[in-house]
User: Fold this.
Amino acid sequence: MTRPEFDDRSLLLHAALDGELDAAGVIEIERLLAADPKLAAEYARLKSLREAIHAKAPRESAPDSLRLRMMELAETQQTLRREAKTARWRDPPSWRSFAAAMAATVVVTLGLQHLIAAGNAPDTALQAIVSAHMRSQISGQPVDVVSTDRHTVKPWLAGKLPVAAEVVDLAEAGFPLAGGRIDIVAGAGVPTLVYKRRDHLISVTELRAEGEEAAIPRHLAVDGYPVVRWSDNERAYAAVSDLSPTELDAFVAAFRRAVAKERGGGGGAGK
Amino acid sequence: MTSETARRNFAEHVLPHLDDAYSLARWLCGDATDAEDVVQDACVRALKALEGGAAVERPRAWLLAIVRNAAYSWLGKNRPRAIVLAGAAEEAEAHADALETGGSPSPEAALIETADRAMVAAAIDGLPLTFRETLVMREINGLSYRDISEATGAPIGTVMSRLARARAMLAQKLGTVP
Assistant:
């Protein structure tokens, strides 16, 4: 690495520019820059070169078509697995699988009763959420607080509501944050986050999940809008959008992953 | 590893870095459509690696290494000359280039700032492959030296000198009046 045209000082300069120096290195380069105007000029040049590259050759977004194809690549595997699992049930029955089937029936029945009991409440809640989403689209004001920065949206919501909403950044997954708003569900304010996908908006509302166990996403249609409802760790969510169901699914998956990461502090759920 | 775990790892490690993968592929192949093919090929390779039980510690560097390999395969098939140039000849050429830089008057910072998009793109495109990939990984993908070293398989010292030379060549191109 020691070529004649790049002495150690020059490499130090680049490392400083790239934020790769430790505290001692930073002090050293500051001393050198103060003492040597030629080196300082070189540093200024490198900085303007970096700015020119960042401004004029930015990182590009992968085309949506490519992103969708790659999402499907991940989903195909899931479909295959599901088929494999169903096939296993067709194996000749043994007392063991028979007992398992009976246990499953009991669970399913209990689950159904629970659903029927709770059946009406979520429907009005969903209706309210979908109405709020529709209103936001018609009024052209989908958010109360406009920001792509979750660190702006979260405190704004926290200042207005008794619950602390989890606000996650999904820009890398292709769903940049547009902002947040407060919707009224069952007479109480609830936090709604709004994410963007091309020209489409996705409203995701956090509901109180009283006694609700973690539930896999359910797909519903309310007033012609696809809605996905699920709950994780005592929190229930509903996402509404005019996106295609596949893309809405992708959003829900990205959102759940990000929330699990946020709450688990990187570990725990999802592994 | 079950395909379910592989799929989840794919969604977790690969999908969030598609923009980075695409940007790198685009600068390496120089064409949007070809870049899509390269990224798709890389994703299939990544999924296979995950199914094979690959342990991923630094997902972005890992994925970009796969994208780079896919891009090199693509270049080998479609632009064999670019690969030949990426060898020892390129090192020598760039070396000579950098030495010349030392002799001419210093490029102006102000002039560099006035360069437009097309000029910046042409200057980056004009860099020899190994220097271009190092520069793109650093400036456009924002990888650390360690990540670049992992993605390109070059020692950190080599990464540093390549980056320094790539910048010298760019500053020379953008900072001097034609």
